[in-house]
Amino acid sequence: MTDGTTSKGQLPEIAAGLKKKRFQLESRLGRSDRSPLSVWFWELDRVLLALMLTLIAIGLIAVAAASPVSALKHSTAAVSLDPLYYFYRQLGWVIVGIPIMLVVSMLPKEQARRFAILAAVGAFALLFLVPIFGKTVNGAQRWIGYGFATVQPGEFLKPFYAVSLAWLLSLRVKDPSLPVISLSFVLTGIIALLLMMQPNLGQTLIFCGIWFVLMMISGLSARLIAVISMGGIGGLIGAYFLYPVATQRINSWLFGGDEFDQVMLAHKALTGGGLLGTGPGLGTAKFKLPEAHTDYIFSVIGEEFGLLACVAIALVYLAIIVRVFLRLLDEEDNFIILAVAGLTAQFGGQALINMAVNLQLFPSKGMTLPLISYGGSSFLALSLGVGLLLAFTRRNPYLDRSQYVTKWPKDRPKEIPKEIMVTK
Is pLDDT of 316 > 90? Predict the structure, then answer.
């Protein structure tokens, strides 16, 4: 054998080596690969993840369109902000938030539950400290921290509260004598009181909405649901008379505000672009909006990208909700059903309120559009919530359909009766 040639005896070895490498490449992240990453990939609801990433991509485009407005308003004679200042910051939050979302989605369901409960305790403690050490921005004391590490505890508490409340209510199935409903009512009331002290009526409505949805799913009687509904209406009436900001905003919504009213400006911007919009960066009504990059980003989208784009975004949110509940059709774990329902109620309820405010169907609430509006605390908290949602909706798509999997009844006997034992 000379250099540059291969003997006939080496050909089978080379072919076997190539075949082995090909098999390794094909099996990586394949169904035969049982590594943790591969198991996560095949159990994950990839359609739901794709819908979430679609919202994030839309959000970056929308923040880029709204950033010049907020940069101009927050610039001073000494400091002039770059027109894309808020876009760059949001891009940074996205780079941090997406890995957090994926890491949380990899947690086993038991670990995800423990993580959410412990995080809820921490966020609840920070919420207690806000009235003492919190920072006041735009007349509301909602933030705590220093410099870059300033966070809004109420935002982080929402997804953790939903999971913790689901765990608490799931205990009722195991022991109906436990006073979990009374305990959940007291806990929700304390959170609502702390939020109203900031004041923050919008987040209070979200927490109460999560509690109400989980109460209905957990099997409360129609009489109790009616009592709770009347109590909620009474609470809104009380907020109208006791909460000056709510009084002003509800009056503007019911009786019409002046031409500079926030909701009126948002509605004009939303409808100003027609069906197809004025084009990216060509909107002018957005410069009159008070918080174009956060609360009223839906109106910026309507002006520059058109009402059809707004309809498409609403359909993406609807698709997420439908997809989540389709995943629950065969779910038997009571905690998983409640946790997923609570997280979905928080996510969908927040989106619904934000879009309704921009459409002049609801009083102004100062609430962001999930995964689209600008905001560090908001985006990171939503990333954690979406990560938990992805973790709880993970499932083996073939396990339930396998003929080799036996589903034992809950009241199965501990020992097999002798009369049905098969002996050789």
Answer: yes
For residue 424, how many other CB atoms are within 10 A of its CB? 2
Residues 306 and 275 sit within 8 Å (Cβ to Cβ): yes
Contact at 8 Å (CB) between 165 and 186? no
Alpha-carbon gap, residue 185 to 224, rounded angstroms: 12
Are 106 and 392 in contact by the 8 Å Cβ rule? The answer is no
Cα angle value 271/272/278 (rounded, 5°): 120
What size, in residues, is the chain? 424
Q: Which residues pair with 144 in a beta bridge?
A: 151
* ∠ CA 301-306-311, rounded to 5°: 85
**With left for phi above 0 and alpha for psi between -120 and 50, is residue 405 left, alpha or beta?**
beta
Q: How far apart are CA 360 and CA 252, in angstroms?
A: 10
The residue type at 185: F
Q: Which of 275, 285, 264 is nearest to 364 (CA)?
A: 264
- Are the CB atoms for 65 and 298 separated by under 8 Å? no
What pLDDT, on the 0 to 100 scale, is given for residue 229? 80
pLDDT digits (tens, 9 = 90+) for 111-145: 999 999 999 999 999 999 888 887 877 777 787 87
For residues 370-378, average pLDDT: 90
Please state, in angstroms and rounded to a whole number, the distance separating the CA atoms of residues 364 and 249. Answer: 6
Query: What pTM value is reported for the model?
Result: 0.83
pLDDT of residue 38: 79
* Exposure of 194 in the CB half-sphere (CA atoms within 13 A): 24
Task: Identify the pLDDT of residue 9.
Answer: 58
- Side chain identity at residue 314, one-letter code: A
Q: pLDDT tens, 222-267? A: 788 888 888 878 877 887 777 777 777 777 777 665 545 677 788 8
Residue 423 has pLDDT above 50, yes or no: no
Which burial class, exposed, middle or buried, applies to 317 when counting CB atoms under 10 A from its CB (0-12, 13-18, 19+)?
Answer: buried
